[in-house]
Write a structure and sequence with these properties.
Cytochrome p450, 44% helix, alpha+beta, two-stranded antiparallel ribbon
Length: 246
Amino acid sequence: MDQVYNDFLQLMLNARHDDKQSDYFTIGDLKEFKNRGLNNSEVKENAVTFFVAGYDTTANTLAFACYCLATNHDVQDKCLEEIDNIFHGERPQFEDLSKLEYLDRFFNEVLRLYASAVRIQRGGKQGITVKGVYIPKDVDISVPLYALHRNPTYWPDPEKFDPDRFTEENKAKRPDYAFIPFGVGPRICIGMRLAVMEVKMALVFLLQNFSFSPCSKTEIPIELETGGLIRAKNGIPLKINNREKP
């Protein structure tokens, strides 16, 4: 495991110096990195947190994404068309993910309905009054994401799956904090960018090779169970078909 940790640490350090000729860091670089407040052990521990904490949540989100594709064939067709037009059957590269505008809207709509966290929690550093209600210092405040993301004030017909909620025009019609699947502010999920990249890369690969449709055991609507995370109570059985590459 130490080799894995050190490889990840090496990548992080290299990324900070990608404008230099050398691909590897020097002793001076390492001293600079340590002076920023994290030692090697702390970086290793955070790297492990990225993968351990992100494994179940990412897999869960990907499963819900496949369910949404299977139960919304018009949306699936648009995702397929965009992916085929951009990649032409070739292996996706990270820098190309930003070109997938419709897939991004699709992914955000999946997160709106099936954000992994049921709620996020914050502790106030000072007392504050919100709409006439005083909240004392150090009182924990819980934000129910499931309810927020289905609030009809911000999301008309909230149970309908509609990626076009996330066009620039529609996003401008609602408050920024109406959609916070990874939290917000200084305590936003540290693994957000990694999770988004993982799911999008997986979706591109899957849709290049397969299409999804409901089967006799697919629940529509799906029954959810909520604990620490939102999950499908009875799993997500789907029919998966091979597709011909363009």
